[in-house]
Amino acid sequence: MFERFTKGARAVVTGAVTHAERAEADSVTEEHLLLSLLDQKGSRASFAVAALGLTDRRDSMESALAEARRRGGLTGADAEALAGIGIDITEILARVEGVHGEGALAAARGNRRRRSRRRPFTGGAKSILEKSLRIALGRRDRFIGEEHLLLALTAGPGVVADVLAEHGATYAMVERALYGDDGESREAS
């Protein structure tokens, strides 16, 4: 599938690997794809990111992503759903961190030893890459570009999509920033 990626989309994917390496993460996640995408300049996606004000709010997004990691990867919707049945994630987090130290849930999620130097992509990151292909095909685009990766990051449930939505980047808003109001809105599969 990588042969269908534009040069810019390939840069996003390789940049995600670099972000994972810098963070000493065991694998490449959706978060690394987003951070790499935010690094890119001069593309349709970088224009949309700037138009939506995400460039100016990168620190806020990184803080929100860090907080989600601290919660063990639970989304805001997950925490709300659990609160609805009487489970207080804040209290659980405080107890776990009181016993095991700050960031214990984040550490527990990613502490596998790797034998190879290559960082694998998580299932969620692979899903984003596959979804970007479906979005490109749905738009009748021949190649997968950065804009398709950005749309894919907003198209499904998960921490990254939640953080983007909290910062004004829903699928519909990103699509509008990328393509305008051409009347050809196509939802992601």
UniProtKB/TrEMBL annotation:
The keyword Cell division is assigned to this record: no
Name of the protein: Clp domain protein
Native organism taxonomy: Bacteria, Bacillati, Actinomycetota, Actinomycetes, Kitasatosporales
Species name: Streptomyces pratensis (strain ATCC 33331 / IAF-45CD)
Xref: Pfam families: Clp_N (PF02861)
UniProt xrefs under InterPro entries: Clp_N_dom_sf, Clp_R_N
Domain (Clp R) ranges: 2-184
Keyword annotations of the record: Repeat
